[in-house]
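User: Can you recover a sequence for this backbone? Please restate the input before giving your answer.

Assistant: Of course. Working from this structure:
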């Protein structure tokens, strides 16, 4: 909260930023360090407008200047890659503990490896009356593609198998996935990889967006099921492009209710709460699937940091409320 709020005449006038007695109505300054693509998809005019009316100002961080010389910021939002940037942020967190950095770089780093990414879900072993949430059986292959057929046979993983680059750094390459239908073709894959059992899920996945304590779920079209017959007739490795994009929304599709039904809310709340804690992140989404033919057997197959919130319904309201809640919590802590 840095300067007096200079406006308040449009929609949202008089809306409290949430400070007691109306005495601290200050601007909340959010510095952002995002790629130009991300800035475009996230910082849409509707978000900026709503934010302004709620007393939030987004300010672009200049990479050519020291972070400490900019701002001052209440919150720093970021999604940039590279060791150098991580170090800048870590140093800034040390010297500016009053600023909320969303999210801590070391916590984000955890998602940059597709093995460690899902470890928290596996450790949680979530199972209650609403369902069971796990991760598909998987195997990491660091090198030597010729060893893969034996490694897969020894581990008991069943075909078909999804091969995903172990490193998940946001590069185009880290999203180049393949589906392998027979054991011997596995030698054609290029380690380092995570090999994951393909779980039939009726061709629909659930994107579970998390923004602090808020959760929103949407349906997306996904890879179709592979039948036993198809598996026995098919050989080879098939590359597939990113399937979980906005164009493939399945929210309005006419789907089998057993496939379309969203995961139970209480289950998602438990999962999200626990993952927030274990991962130390507040901005992420999960790709979740329901094993076809079951009602309550779920798998998390992917976790993304600061995903495409522009595609999340009502993200403008949810995100601005979240930013305000962070500042309010800090204010309460200081005055309490
Ligand atoms: N184990 C699995 N079983 C069934 N389908 C899977 C599995 N793993 C991945 N898929 C399918 O492949 C797609 C891409 O996989 P994944 O989400 O891991 O990749 P990604 O490149 O990280 O995606 P994103 O664009 O969401 O970051 C999934 O959305 C899903 O359709
Ligand atoms: O919203 P989902 O379906 O999860 O997909 C997102 C990816 O997971 C993100 O990695 C993309 O963000 P980046 O472009 O910053 O990598 C993100 O890109 P976007 O912000 O340009 O929409 C999305 O493609
Ligand atoms: Mg995904
Ligand atoms: Mg991903």
């Amino acid at each position: 909260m840095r300067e007096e709020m200079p406006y308040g005449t449009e929609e949202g006038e008089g809306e409290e930023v949430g400070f007691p007695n109306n005495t601290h109505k200050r601007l909340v300054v959010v510095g952002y360090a995002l790629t130009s693509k991300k800035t475009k998809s996230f910082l849409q005019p509707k978000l900026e407008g709503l934010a302004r009316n709620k007393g939030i100002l987004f300010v672009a961080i200049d990479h050519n200047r020291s972070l400490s010389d900019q701002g001052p910021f209440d919150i720093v939002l970021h999604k940039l890659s590279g060791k150098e940037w991580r170090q800048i942020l870590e140093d800034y967190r040390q010297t500016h503990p009053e600023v909320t950095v969303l999210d801590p770089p070391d916590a984000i780093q955890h998602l940059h490896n597709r093995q460690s990414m899902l470890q928290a879900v596996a450790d949680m072993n979530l199972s209650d009356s609403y369902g069971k949430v796990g991760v598909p059986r998987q195997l990491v292959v660091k090198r030597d593609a010729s060893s893969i057929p034996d490694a897969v046979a020894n581990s008991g993983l069943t075909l078909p198998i999804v091969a995903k680059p172990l490193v998940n750094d946001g590069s185009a390459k880290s999203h180049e996935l393949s589906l392998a239908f027979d054991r011997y073709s596995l030698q054609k894959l290029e380690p380092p990889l995570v090999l994951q059992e393909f779980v039939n899920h009726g061709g629909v996945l659930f994107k579970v967006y998390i923004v602090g304590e808020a959760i929103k779920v949407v349906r997306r079209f996904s890879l179709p099921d592979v039948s036993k017959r198809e598996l026995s007739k098919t050989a080879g490795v098939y590359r597939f492009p990113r399937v979980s994009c906005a164009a493939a929304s399945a929210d309005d599709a006419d789907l089998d209710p057993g496939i379309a039904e969203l995961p139970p809310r209480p289950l998602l709340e438990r999962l999200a709460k626990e993952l927030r804690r274990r991962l130390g992140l507040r901005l992420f989404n999960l790709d979740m699937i329901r094993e076809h033919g079951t009602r309550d057997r779920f798998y998390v197959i992917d976790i993304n940091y600061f995903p495409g919130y522009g595609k999340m319904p009502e993200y403008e309201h949810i995100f601005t409320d979240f930013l305000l809640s962070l500042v309010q919590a800090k204010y309460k802590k200081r005055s309490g």
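That completes the design. Residues 210 and 284 are 5 Å apart (CA to CA).
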